[in-house]
């Protein structure tokens, strides 16, 4: 029996995850990798997020990232590892996280008792994450916890993000959604990435998107206007519920009071970061 309110773990994840992912939208990431000789945004992303896996090839990264076109991944991997080592990429990403959090949260927040409390709670939750069948989480779990409190919080958010993400991929496979169908159906909820961002960053063409829409219509998951049908809405809800079940352990370990407090703290940091322009204004939406 769960000791948590329904979707408490999901709400906590939703408060922590964006502060991890804002680094990938930060100019600081491009600056750090530019100093290493990388100036292509896709190359930077694959190196920054994939470095925990070691000098992984395109097949491994396509598998673990799930929603990228393999042709785009193969254009940059494994070639990027001749330009930068995984260790150097991880160091550059951490420096970018440091400068980004300093900019969007401010030094006072970083040095606050609330940040220290959030880091302690998030790391405690991550103690219950499991490695089996979770390659991106497992790779990041092998990394050391940074000494600085705000980076320890960012690291713990990374662990919790990838743990849930690995489970979510299993749910997508079980639901029979291929990479682009997963993106199209998520966007149709109004909570996913806008199509222009997907097409600009994931390597898909408009024709690929349209074909995925037609496949989903054929399954009765989208209507003629591209909106989710009742069946499509139910499928997306079932996906999140399945992901919740596979991601329950860290939040059960933390306990109801700890989860509530971590969610509160995470939301506060997220609001501050968003107000400081941590995310593109047009990142989410159906348009």
Task: Give descriptors for this structure.
287 residues, mainly alpha
What's the structural blueprint in terms of helices and strands?
Layout: H1 8-21, H2 27-34, H3 41-50, H4 58-65, H5 70-76, H6 86-105, H7 107-110, H8 113-126, H9 135-141, H10 149-175, H11 179-188, H12 195-201, H13 206-218, H14 230-246, H15 248-254, H16 256-275
Helix pairs in contact: 1-10, 1-16, 2-6, 3-6, 4-5, 8-10, 8-15, 8-16, 9-10, 10-14, 11-13
Account of the 3D structure:
- This protein has 16 helices and no strands.
- The chain has helices at 8-21, 27-34, 41-50, 58-65, 70-76, 86-105, 107-110, 113-126, 135-141, 149-175, 179-188, 195-201, 206-218, 230-246, 248-254, 256-275.
- The longest helix has 27 residues, at 149-175.
- By secondary structure, the chain is mostly helical.
- The model has no long low-confidence stretch (mean pLDDT 97).
- The N and C termini lie far apart (41 Å).
- It is globular and about 55 Å long.
